[in-house]
Amino acid sequence: MTTLIALDIGGTQMRAARFAPGEYPPQEIRKVPTQNPESSPEETLFQLVESLWPADGKVAAIAAALPGPVDLQQGLLLTAPNIPQWRDYPLPQRLEARFGVPAAMDNDANLAALGEWRFGAGRGHHYLLYLTVSTGIGGGVILNDRILHGARGLAGELGHITVVPNGPRCGCGQRGHLEAVASGTAIARQARAALESGTPSKLSLHPPPTARQISEAAAQGDTLARELLAQAGYYIGVALADYLHVFNPTCLIIGGGVSRSGDLLLDPLRAALREHVMSPEYLKNVTATTATLGDNAGLMGALALAEQTAFERPATR
Amino acid sequence: MTTLIALDIGGTQMRAARFAPGEYPPQEIRKVPTQNPESSPEETLFQLVESLWPADGKVAAIAAALPGPVDLQQGLLLTAPNIPQWRDYPLPQRLEARFGVPAAMDNDANLAALGEWRFGAGRGHHYLLYLTVSTGIGGGVILNDRILHGARGLAGELGHITVVPNGPRCGCGQRGHLEAVASGTAIARQARAALESGTPSKLSLHPPPTARQISEAAAQGDTLARELLAQAGYYIGVALADYLHVFNPTCLIIGGGVSRSGDLLLDPLRAALREHVMSPEYLKNVTATTATLGDNAGLMGALALAEQTAFERPATR
Fold first, then answer.
1. Nearest to B246 among A126, A153, A157 (CB)
2. Which residues in chain A have their CB less than 8 angstroms from residue B273's CB?
3. Contact A78, A71 (CB under 8 A)
4. What's the gap in Å between the CA of B226 and the closest CA on chain A?
5. Interval A100-143: pLDDT, tens
6. Searching chain A, which residue's CA lies closest to the CA of residue B274?
7. In a domain, A119, yes or no
8. Which of A186, B34, B277, B293 is deepest in the core (most CB within 10 A)?
9. Domain extent at residue B233
């Protein structure tokens, strides 16, 4: 029996899971803080992987979901928020050198897309777009059953198209991107502005509400909170209509914390899609839905990548 | 020796070319009007292909560039402007039934992209975006050396993303798409509005200038004409910046009549690209250039498709 190890590495914590081939849930799952005063993030990661190593010593592949952009041509994690030690960091090469098994990586949004395609809301689809709407908006694109990486692995940044020219500042530094008007951060900013201008709501201005509190207020019927979610859904729908013309997918999946609002986000999203698509042909047999893997999407995507890696580069020992 | 036949079918005329394997230019090229009072478009096309048939009778494949959206899953040309007889028309199946050789089709923008990738400005690139800027704005996307078709063959409509929310009406019926603000039609409309409001220019309002006349005036230094081309270049650059984030290509090719203005369009386009990209990583080793195949891009793309078709489905006789 050969085991697969999946890693989901964030700026705050690292999670690792050990899977028997073809089996889910994992045999074991562990997590540790990414930064600690006693060891480097690399050493922390190595110890985490070691702690999960199977008794028979046989691991077919390790794959990692990473919180920043990766250059797959060069095999480098370019940057990762809150892990300054990992700039231009060759993670797969380091894992292979340390453990002697094939290793692979991708960014967490790409792997969440792969996870939903393989195990979640996207099963059976060959062309799929995944958006994670939380602090920012990340994206992953599956075309013909493969992740779209582009020339260097930087493709799939679906949150970074302009939907409001010269609009609010985006996390990336540009203006008016989808992320800047429809992410959890954007929704919280809009709530604060509305409350400051006296819009009635159950939400409190002191302290200003978080995206999660806005979702909760919306679930309880608060008008302002519902309007803010509807506006975010509208912008996401407009962007997805553009993406339908460009990618012609059959499945649109919305994940991330904001997606927990379900139809309060999705109904306006679907309405905007219908309104902005250039021909109803693009909506034929198209599913627009929420993700089903929740916080495990990245980890399950890493499992799918480990499966592919084991298949394409079988271990020689 | 087995011949390839490439077809470029437009609403006004049909062109056909016969190629020896691996050779360019064609051995023979013919064109006829698409509509004539004596025969149906299909019969006209069949006669055109017959007239090019080689003496030895050996044709490896036929491929056609078509002026409308195709459903490759069902093998149908969905619609074609000015060829009302061809709604939901199974062209490859009809050609195969009539001539007994493998046949394929794609829309002309996809095949122009493939032509530039195989024979033109995109040679050597694996990830390429092609925009044809003429009456409308069409697009084609090459990813990992293949045309992006999406689930049903409707992908690649790069002219139909929103760049000016609630902006001018687009050819597709939506508002503010790239086509609606940067196509030849849009440039001509903007010129007319500027002239009507008294903006000084060498251009005449009676009759209103065409996109070609605006290009000519720009080449001669006319300020208004240059500003209009610069604005179109700006909008195309903004859209391409979004597309860099989504596709991470290494080559951006602008074709179509408006692209003949060269740097008057491309300089502002490149400036907008630099200004709107979320990270300089996306511009590393990226070429933004004009097409080199001109009006033959579709025909040469059909040749490339015929090559692929002959390779993938070798004739059995």
1. A157
2. none
3. yes
4. 23
5. 999 999 999 999 999 999 999 999 999 999 999 999 999 999 99
6. A174
7. no
8. A186
9. 121-292
